[in-house]
Design goal:
CATH superfamily: Nucleoside Triphosphate Pyrophosphohydrolase
CATH architecture: Alpha-Beta Complex
Number of domains: 1
Shape: globular
Order of helices and strands: EHEEEEHEHHEHHEEEEHHHEEE
CATH class: Alpha Beta
Number of helices: 9
Strand content: 25-35%
Length: about 270
């Protein structure tokens, strides 16, 4: 049990929490989507160094559930919110929010939209100016995701998502998320693009190559991202990833003191 060494500030906070002098902050529901393409490459974004959470880290698209993701009904194809709730051990309402957030955040942060005119179709291209205007309106929350889909006559394709993992931010962090991880294949005809916002760089990388870059200190990966990339590096095809059996087990890394040093461990 070696874990990740904690910087001084987090180590001090960890000791305060372990001693019961500081209460952990509550979590927020969130969704993250690993976009895959042939060759088992994944889409990664580098968060701007000015971000309050995970500054400079390479991450998958994702973000917090918007209240409207849970409250507003959308046209839906694929597993129902109740079925997703069973998979992720969540209520139907929370599961609806998670899936909607997964699709919405993926579009906001990559331009990829897992929705189509019908239950068996998917949008072929989202690079026009009108799509960009809608994407920006979703980001600034002036447009609700349900209204976006309804106005365009689109059906959310929950069947294009595969459940992958469940991570909860450690109690020592001051911003905490209860995050469900999904994987999805880049739809035919669509392409990712550098959309800016919270990221200052994007890249398609093979999982093993991203891990090697992290070991060389060229990129920074948070534990959930590193762990997910490690798992994906064991597959030689996208079909293999999609066929993999996944039992969703909640993981919340915790701080422990090892030989006088505070470290973050996942076991």
């Amino acid at each position: 049990m070696t874990g990740f060494p904690l910087p001084a500030e987090l180590a001090a906070r960890a000791r305060e929490i372990l001693a019961g002098r500081v209460e952990p902050v509550p979590t927020r529901d969130a969704a993250t989507v690993v976009i895959l393409r042939d060759g088992v490459e994944v889409y990664l974004l580098r968060r701007k160094s000015t971000m309050a959470f995970a500054a400079g880290a390479y991450v998958f698209p994702g973000g917090s559930v918007d209240a409207r993701d849970t409250d507003q009904a959308v046209a839906w194809a694929g597993p129902s919110p109740a079925e997703w709730g069973t998979v992720f051990h969540a209520s139907e309402r929370v599961a609806r929010g998670l899936v909607c957030a997964a699709v919405r955040e993926t579009f906001e942060e990559s331009g990829v939209l897992l929705a189509g005119p019908g239950p068996d179709s998917v949008v072929a291209d989202t690079t026009g100016d009108d799509w960009e205007a809608d994407r920006l309106a979703l980001i600034d929350r002036s447009l609700a995701f349900a209204d976006f889909l309804a106005r365009r006559g689109l059906v959310l394709r929950s069947d294009l998502l595969k459940p992958w993992a469940h991570w909860i931010t450690p109690e020592i962090e001051q911003r905490r998320f209860d995050t469900r991880f999904f994987v999805a294949v880049l739809p035919e005809g669509q392409r990712t693009r550098d959309v800016g916002g919270e990221a200052d760089q994007v890249a398609w990388r093979r999982p093993a190559e991203a891990i090697e870059s992290a070991h060389r200190g060229e990129i920074f990966l948070m534990p959930p991202t590193y762990h997910t990339l490690s798992e994906l590096s064991g597959y030689d095809s996208v079909a293999g990833v999609l066929a993999a059996h996944r039992e969703i087990v909640t993981i919340m890394p915790r701080a422990v003191e090892i030989e006088g040093e505070m470290r973050l461990v996942t076991t």
